[in-house]
Structure formats: structure tokens, C-alpha cells
Specification:
Layout lengths: L7 E3 L8 E3 L4 H13 L3 H6 L5 H4 L7 H9 L7 H13 L2 H5 L12 H16 L3 H11 L6 H10 L15 H8 L2 H8 L16 H7 L3 H8 L16 H7 L3 H8 L16 H7 L3 H8 L16 H7 L3 H8 L16 H8 L2 H8 L16 H8 L2 H8 L16 H7 L3 H8 L16 H7 L3 H8 L16 H8 L2 H8 L16 H7 L3 H8 L16 H7 L3 H8 L16 H7 L3 H8 L9 H10 L7
Antiparallel strand pairs: 1-2
Helix pairs in contact: 1-5, 5-7, 5-8, 7-9, 10-11, 10-12, 12-13, 12-14, 14-15, 14-16, 15-17, 16-17, 16-18, 18-19, 18-20, 19-21, 20-21, 20-22, 21-23, 22-23, 22-24, 23-25, 24-25, 24-26, 25-27, 26-27, 26-28, 27-29, 28-29, 28-30, 30-31, 30-32, 31-33, 32-33, 32-34, 33-35, 34-35, 34-36
Length: 624
């Protein structure tokens, strides 16, 4: 067998067929060996200029001696990029690669060599272009649309903003080399009669847009010289070449495009975002300046959601861009979007302290302006826990620190609900904040903190003399009920330690805190209540359901056991419809709870329906 394989090389971890013919595939073997070394040495990565996030994801060192050797022998691969480009292209032109289906692959991660060659041959080729690379590239690009590498590259360079329905069916050779910026190959392709320099692929992306997205100014210049190329043609998302350049902060390309008379510098995409909006949102200061210096650009133009460039930059904390826009007289610094959120609201919600300061320094910005839901900048900052922003706003005389939103929730309520301890302290230190202010459902800040288990916030509120620790909401639920329902053991303990909290207070449906804990199976909370003498463990709600009945109905085995261990709990007590703990446990298929109840000497399974259900569902249990 060894003799028969003398002309073949086996690569067990290769995505190709494991046997590669040596005589025909010499370049591929060299390439696999290089990639094998590269996957074990970042030193080779450095020599080949591979320091990129994509490649380093797979780079691993096998042994320090290999790293030392390659570090001290820098000239092992004197023409590394050319070799890598030719290697990748040789593989992509091989019969094995051509035999792979051109349609979308299910998982490119299972084909790492194909994935790498498709994505990086152009990068290596551009760095060190040779006649061999050009020749191999032309062979590949001749029928590129029908090659698997077109799909492989297309999927790797697609952006999340591209159409989800896009595929590589129209992604041709010119699209590919425009992205890589290989001008020599582009020139050859553009000289062919069959080449359409303005054609979009399935995502509507033209060669010009691909050159822009790849950040290739020379390729952009070459395409702009073509009469057939429309420099303002958008893709399927309405995004023009200028807009893509602005998004990615390609200042030199933005300059190339703005020099054209046939470019609309303020053309929005399908969502209404202009080049300026996108540049501002991404904090590209120089591009923002380029666009603001251009006549025909509206610096205050809102997108479809009403967000202006200032709002976009404010929400992302781009201080320098905000300053550029605020220096303009034709920018409204307090302009709300469709939801009523102003640039200050966005900056406060995002915790962008320096931007908040810039906006608060303006006389024409209302620091207490609510959005359509009644939420002010202070409320947003308090809800998100942005302590420095909260301080800035509380230092203002024209900000109401207790202003509720449309649902009646104050900044304190939101901070308490989200457990923002330091913000709660800031607000409680104010004399003009009501620490017991109820919202439209009569939920107080304490109720909000208790429901979400925020122990430290609950402690702060319980330390106040002006907070009622037992105040019910519109449904009769007290802070204790809220904490018990969610199983917040420590908050329950805090409240039970109070003399002014009724541990057995029922809500409007008659459910006590114990019932709330039992129905959800919160064993440790149930134990706290059962240890109290002032809690009735068999208290029925308005439907006649006791804590045991709720535990049995929901299959909470441990909680049912806790209650059944009590002498003052009736295991046979029916609700208003005649259902007992046993009948509900059986109907729900809760075998362990049924067994517990049947093991009781005082459990009564004589009801015919209950007997039938138990026998049918649990034939192996003792017959009731």
C-alpha cells in the first residue's frame, strides 16, 4: 500500500479529498504545508503580513522552538505573498475545487482551506503581483460566477446591512477583483466586450461599491473613469458608493466621489440615512467635515425614524462630531425624532457624559423635555444607571428630579426597578424626591425593587421613615408579595424583619405571600413563612385554593412536602370547584406529588374521578 501511494500525499485535516496527487498538485501541497506551518506560528504570519483578526483566529503555536526558528530565519519565504497567492489560485483552479458545487455551502468552517483561499488570494496577490498570479487569476475569473469560490468570498464579505436574500449568482470576476483592488486584472476585464462595469450582483452591489467597501482608492479611480459606470448607483438597500465610503470612514474615497458633479452628496438610503448621518453615527470626524463643507448637504436632515446626524452622533458618544454639528447655525440641537427623543435624551440614555455636558451648555436645549412616553433625559439616565449623567442633570435647577413618565414611573422608580444602587442614593438625597411615589398601578419604588430582588436598594428604601413597607398596589400586592412571588429570599427576609409588615396579607384575589411562593415552588421562601406563627399555612384564596393546593397543581414536590409536614394543613381541602390537592396533582401528571399525598394516612382518594385519574395515569402506584 505504501508503494502505491508514493506519488500521493495524505492530509488528514484537509477539507479536500484526503489524497492529493503530488505530480499535478505541487503548488497545492506547498500551500498546504505553508498553511500548516502558519497555523502553528505567528512568526510566519508576521513575515507574510498575516496579522489580521481573520487569520489570527486560526493561528496556533505548537512549540516555542518552532517560533524561535522562524523568528530568526526571516528569509525563509522571501516572496511569501506571491507564493501564497499562486498557491491559493492553483488550488482554486484545480479539478477538486471546480468539482465542488457552486451553490451556497452549508458550513464554510468545515472547509478552511477553501475559505482561506477564496478570501485571501486577492490580498496576497495585490501585495506582490506577478505574471503568474495574473495568469492564474484570469483562469479563475473566466467562469467565476459558476465557481464555488464566488460563493465562499461573497458570504465572507457580506455586511449585516446587505439583503438577507442575496446570493453569489451574479457576483462575477469584476466584483471580486474590485473588492481586492487588483487594478491590473480589473483593467484586463474592463477591456473585454462582455464586461458590464455597472452591473450589480444579487445584493445590487456594483463593482464600484465593492471597491469602496474594500477601501481601494485606485480601483475606485479606475471605475470612475469608465463611461458605463454610474457613480451614484445604489445597492438594493439604497446605499450609494458615497454612503458606503462615509460609513467606513474612507476619507480619500469620499473626496474622490465628492469631486464628481454627478454625485448627490445627500442621497439617503432606504431607511433615510444620508452619508452625513452614517459618518456622524460612526464618529468619522474628517468625513463629517468633508460632507459639511459640501453645498447640498443638509446637516439636520432626519432619517425615516426622525433621527438627525446630531442625534446619531450623540447616542454613540462621538464628542468631536457633536461639536462640529453644534457649531452649525442650521442644526437644531433639541430636535426630537419620531419617538420624541432629543439628542440629549439619546446621550443621557447611552451614558455619554461629555456629550451630555456639551448639550446642557446650550441655552436652546431643554434639559427636562420628555419624549412621547413621558421619559426625560434624567429618567433615561437613572433607568440605565449612568451615575455621572444623573449628577449632571440633578445639578440643574430646571430639571424636575421626580417627574413621572406616562405610566407614572419616576426616575427613582426606574432606578429601583433596575437595581441601580448609587443612582437610588443620589435621588433619595434630594428633598424634592418622593421615595414612596406610586405609579399608575400604585407600585412604589420599594415594590419595584422587591419584585426584582434588589436587596441593597430595598435596604435604602426601608431605611426611610417616609416609605410604607406594606403599601399594596392596585392588585393588592405588597412588596412582600412581589418578592415572595419571584422567590427573592433575601428581600423577603428584609421585609419579614419589619414590625410594620403583615406577613399574611392577602391581595385582591385572596392570595397570601405564602401562596405566591408555594405556587412557584420557592422552597426557601416558603420555609421563612412557615417558621412564622402569624402566617396561616392553609389560608384559601378567593377561589378556595390553599398554598398546598397551588403547590400540588403546579407539581412543586419540595414545597408540597413542606406543607404536608405541617399538622395544620388539610391535605384534602377542596377549592370552590371541589378540586383537591390530589385531584389536581393527578390531573397535571405530577407523579411525585401524587405519591406524597397517597402516602398520607389522612389523604382521601375516595372521589371517583380522582381514583380513575390516579389509576389511569399512575398504574404502578399503590391503588387509592
Amino acid at each position: 500500500m505504501r508503494g502505491r501511494l508514493k506519488n500521493y500525499c495524505v492530509f488528514k485535516d484537509s477539507p479536500l479529498p484526503v489524497i492529493v496527487e503530488r505530480k499535478v498538485k505541487k503548488k497545492v501541497i506547498v500551500g498546504l504545508l505553508i498553511l500548516s506551518f502558519a497555523s502553528r506560528s505567528t512568526a510566519l504570519c508576521s513575515r507574510c503580513h498575516f496579522y489580521s483578526p481573520h487569520f489570527l483566529e486560526t493561528a496556533r503555536l505548537a512549540h516555542h522552538t518552532l517560533r524561535e526558528y522562524l523568528t530568526t530565519h526571516r528569509n525563509l519565504f522571501p516572496r511569501a505573498d506571491m507564493e501564497m497567492a499562486e498557491t491559493c489560485l492553483t488550488y482554486l483552479n484545480s479539478d477538486q475545487a471546480k468539482a465542488l458545487p457552486a451553490k451556497r455551502q452549508p458550513d464554510l468552517s468545515s472547509m478552511p482551506f477553501l475559505k482561506y483561499c477564496s478570501r485571501y488570494w486577492g490580498i496576497h496577490g495585490k501585495r506582490e503581483l506577478s505574471d503568474g498570479v495574473i495568469s492564474l487569476a484570469m483562469d479563475l475569473l473566466d467562469e467565476y460566477e459558476n465557481h464555488v469560490t464566488a460563493n465562499s468570498l461573497f458570504e465572507q464579505i457580506l455586511d449585516e446591512d446587505d439583503s438577507l436574500e442575496a446570493n453569489s449568482s451574479l457576483f462575477d470576476g469584476l466584483h471580486c477583483v474590485s473588492f481586492f483592488g487588483i487594478v491590473d486584472v480589473m483593467t484586463v476585464l474592463l477591456g473585454m466586450n462582455s464586461c458590464d462595469a455597472n452591473r450589480g450582483d444579487s445584493a445590487g452591489i456594483t463593482p464600484l461599491i465593492w471597491a469602496v467597501r474594500g477601501g481601494e482608492p485606485e480601483a475606485v479611480e479606475l471605475l470612475l473613469r469608465q463611461e458605463a459606470v454610474s457613480p451614484d448607483k445604489p445597492d438594493n438597500g439604497g446605499m450609494t458608493p458615497l454612503l458606503w465610503a462615509a460609513i467606513n470612514g474612507r476619507g480619500s474615497i469620499v473626496g474622490q466621489l465628492l469631486d464628481r458633479q454627478d454625485i448627490n452628496p445627500d442621497k439617503p438610503d432606504n431607511e433615510g440615512g444620508t452619508p452625513l448621518s452614517w459618518a456622524a453615527a460612526n464618529g468619522h470626524v474628517s468625513v463629517v467635515k468633508q460632507l459639511l463643507d459640501r453645498r447640498g448637504v443638509n446637516p439636520d436632515k432626519p432619517d425615516n425614524e426622525g433621527s438627525t446626524p446630531l442625534s446619531c452622533s450623540a447616542m454613540n458618544g462621538h464628542e468631536s462630531v457633536v461639536k462640529q454639528l453644534l457649531d452649525r447655525r442650521d442644526v437644531n440641537p433639541d430636535k426630537p425624532d419620531n419617538e420624541g427623543s432629543t439628542p440629549l435624551s439619546w446621550a443621557a440614555a447611552s451614558g455619554n457624559e461629555s456629550v451630555v455636558k456639551q448639550l446642557l451648555d446650550r441655552q436652546d436645549v431643554n434639559p427636562d423635555k420628555p419624549d412621547n412616553k413621558g421619559k426625560t433625559a434624567l429618567l433615561w439616565a437613572a433607568a440605565r444607571g449612568h451615575e455621572p449623567v444623573v449628577k449632571q442633570l440633578l445639578d440643574r435647577q430646571d430639571v424636575n428630579p421626580d417627574k413621572p413618565d406616562n405610566e407614572g414611573s419616576t426616575p427613582l422608580s426606574w432606578a429601583a426597578a433596575n437595581g441601580n444602587e448609587s443612582v437610588v442614593k443620589q435621588l433619595l438625597d434630594r428633598q424634592d424626591v418622593n421615595p414612596d411615589f406610586p405609579d399608575n398601578e400604585d407600585k412604589t419604588p420599594l415594590s419595584c425593587a422587591a419584585a426584582n430582588g434588589h436587596v441593597s436598594v430595598a435596604k435604602q428604601l426601608l431605611g426611610r421613615q417616609d416609605v410604607n413597607p406594606d403599601k399594596p398596589d392596585n392588585e393588592g400586592s405588597t412588596p412582600l408579595s412581589c418578592a415572595a412571588l419571584s422567590g427573592h429570599e433575601l428581600v423577603v427576609k428584609q421585609l419579614l424583619d419589619r414590625q410594620d409588615v403583615n406577613p399574611d396579607k392577602p391581595d385582591n384575589e385572596g392570595s397570601t405571600p405564602l401562596s405566591c411562593a408555594a405556587m412557584n415552588g420557592h422552597e426557601s421562601v416558603v420555609k421563612q413563612f412557615l417558621d412564622r406563627r402569624d402566617v396561616n399555612p392553609d389560608y384559601p384564596d378567593n377561589d378556595g385554593r390553599t398554598p398546598l393546593l397551588w403547590a400540588a397543581a403546579n407539581g412543586n414536590e419540595s414545597t408540597a412536602k413542606q406543607l404536608l409536614d405541617r399538622q395544620d394543613v388539610d391535605p384534602n381541602r377542596p377549592d370552590n370547584e371541589g378540586e383537591t390537592p390530589l385531584s389536581l396533582a393527578a390531573a397535571g401528571g405530577h407523579r411525585s406529588v401524587v405519591k406524597q399525598l397517597l402516602d398520607r394516612q389522612d389523604a382521601d382518594p375516595t372521589d371517583q374521578t380522582t381514583r380513575a385519574v390516579c389509576i389511569i395515569r399512575f398504574p404502578t402506584l399503590p391503588k387509592p
